[in-house]
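stage 2 :: seqdesign
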């Protein structure tokens, strides 16, 4: 079984704690959005309540994102705390599900007595991604004319760009 899958069927104690570190490559990630570039440290307290398991903990790693302005990759630390209630898939009635959703904690489903820690950690990474990821608040982005990265290069586009209306005047002046 994958090391990312947590077997809960055998859990007898009401509480268990896990501290694990996963290699960066173990977690699947959508390369278009983010890439996990450092080992993932996971620390979870599992509380069992009959068929429900509440996982409270945090995960730490480093992800690489593309800057929304200059498109360059940059790294960002992730330190996300979570509180997720796992209920067995297909075993809760509709009414119960709705009630759980009203609650403040997030809910997830598990099946076959297995909780997918990979999915949990992946979700935490996505939650950590800002709406508009920036390599730096002061990122100058790309030149809209030539596409140069203005953080590392300079171009003459701005200086030579002339308002088309002024260009017409310039032309008229020359013609005189
Ligand atoms: Zn940038
Ligand atoms: Zn330019």
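stage 2 :: out
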């Amino acid at each position: 079984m994958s090391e990312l899958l947590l077997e809960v069927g055998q859990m007898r104690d009401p509480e268990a704690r896990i501290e694990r570190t996963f290699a960066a490559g173990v977690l699947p990630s959508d390369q278009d959005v983010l890439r996990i570039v450092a080992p993932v440290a996971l620390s979870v307290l599992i509380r069992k309540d009959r068929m429900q398991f509440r996982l409270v903990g945090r995960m730490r790693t480093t992800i690489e994102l593309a800057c929304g302005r200059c498109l360059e990759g940059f790294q960002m630390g992730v330190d996300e705390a979570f509180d997720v209630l796992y209920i067995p898939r297909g075993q809760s009635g509709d009414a119960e599900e709705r009630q759980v959703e009203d609650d403040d904690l997030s809910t997830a489903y598990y099946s076959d007595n297995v909780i997918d820690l990979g999915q949990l950690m992946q979700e935490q990474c996505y939650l950590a991604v800002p709406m508009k990821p920036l390599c730096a608040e002061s990122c100058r982005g790309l030149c809209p004319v030539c596409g140069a990265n203005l953080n590392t290069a300079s171009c003459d586009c701005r200086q030579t760009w002339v308002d088309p209306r002024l260009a017409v005047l310039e032309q008229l002046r020359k013609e005189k």
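stage 3 :: structure notes
- The chain has a mean pLDDT of 87.
- The CA atoms of residues 92 and 98 lie 10 Å apart.
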